[in-house]
């Protein structure tokens, strides 16, 4: 089995080679890493965005119908069990 960062006894793959960074050095490193990750983001096309929006709306409507039906069912059952006016 190979040695990985998670399995490393030091806690990281290159802990020996990395110099200690100061407060501002760590902030600068964080900002660089955020920018690097944001460059990997893929923006959906208009067609994909419309399809995703419609899918979410349909799912929300279906869930609303299920919750409404269960609310009505449990409300009717509660009135039947406890008696209503």
Can you offer a commentary on this structure?
By secondary structure, the chain is an all-alpha fold. Helices cover 62% and strands 0% of the residues. The chain is built from two helices and no strands. The protein is elongated. The chain starts with 22 loop residues before the first helix and ends with a helix. The model has no long low-confidence stretch (mean pLDDT 86).
Main attributes of the structure:
mainly alpha
Brief sketch in words of this structure:
The chain has helices spanning about 25-40, 45-80. With about 80 residues, the chain is mostly helical.
For the report, how would you describe the main beta sheet? none
Helix content: 55-70%
Could you tell me the radius of gyration in angstroms?
Answer: 27 Å
Strand residue content: under 5%
Beginning-to-end CA distance, first to last residue: 72 Å
Which geometry do the CA atoms define?
elongated
Instruction: State the secondary-structure class.
Output: mainly alpha
Low-confidence stretches: none
Total DSSP helices:
2
* β-strand number: 0
Q: Order of helices and strands, N to C? A: HH
| Average pLDDT number | 86
List the helices and strands and how they pair.
Elements: H1 23-38, H2 46-82
């Amino acid at each position: 089995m190979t040695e990985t960062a998670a399995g490393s006894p030091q806690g990281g793959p290159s802990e020996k080679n990395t110099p200690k960074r100061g407060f501002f050095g760590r902030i600068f490193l964080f900002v660089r890493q955020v920018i690097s990750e944001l460059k990997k983001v893929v923006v959906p096309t208009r067609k994909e965005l419309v399809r995703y929006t419609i899918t979410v709306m349909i799912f929300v409507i279906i869930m609303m119908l299920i919750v409404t039906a269960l609310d009505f069912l449990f409300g009717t059952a509660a009135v039947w069990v406890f008696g209503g006016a």
